[in-house]
User: What shape does this take?
Amino acid sequence: MNVRTWRPYLSILVLLATVTFFVYFFVKHPVVRAQLEHTSPAALGLLLLIYLGTVVALAMINDATLRLCKVELGASESLLLTAYSSIINFFGPLQSGPAFRAVYLKKKYGLNLKNYTIATFMYYFFFACFSGLFLLSSILKGWLIVLALAGLFLALLARQNSWVKARLQALDLRSWYYLALATFLQVGLVALIYYIELKNVAPGTHFTQSLVYTGAANLALFVSLTPGAIGFREAFLLFSQRLHHISSSTIVAANIVDRAMYISLLLILALFIFGTHAQRQFKVRQN
Assistant: This one.
């Protein structure tokens, strides 16, 4: 049995196990219900607004990635493509959003998939670096700036390497800083979302704790088999408790709020896309 055969079953198993864990924890720990009661409608509205901001950040990342590949995409189309692929990524099989974007862009713009893959890995590199720095921020503190500068120096040095240059020469590297800024904006907005969620269910939470929490949650995406890293993100957050010092009940309560808000965001995006029949342009252009 190959990976493609058993992966869907494993994903379903993880989803069921996570739902069971949430239900059990919710029933057996009244403190979780008490923490959820502290979440105000105003906070939920603010969270939804910031989540919409993350969609804009993802559209900027998509635009920056395409600029590296020397492909220009209009702002409205980039935003719409980001929203559409986000829905596919969550509700579709095996997080297929990136694959959909690649196929669509290749058929419409003749996108070079090898170049797009390299540019995408550049995004993953920035995402992993920022998330890793957030995760270790409670330990490194002032060393964060030093490490960030060292990382930038190493990145510039790597560009001088003949092997690296051979693989990057097809890209328009003048847009790398735009990709880095857009990625930092995305990670920063996610950190703000988590801080608001944690602060509402546990008022004593500090922003520095939410940074570590964000780093752990983001890195879980790299090993996830499930939509939105369901199950994997919660496991990473529980395993990293010694770094962020956030209780298990707070993690569960905050994740219940976060999952509800993210699904609400996707439903809003879906209603907009299908309500305006915007999905037709993607289906037509794939034929």
About this structure: The CA atoms of residues 32 and 93 lie 32 Å apart.
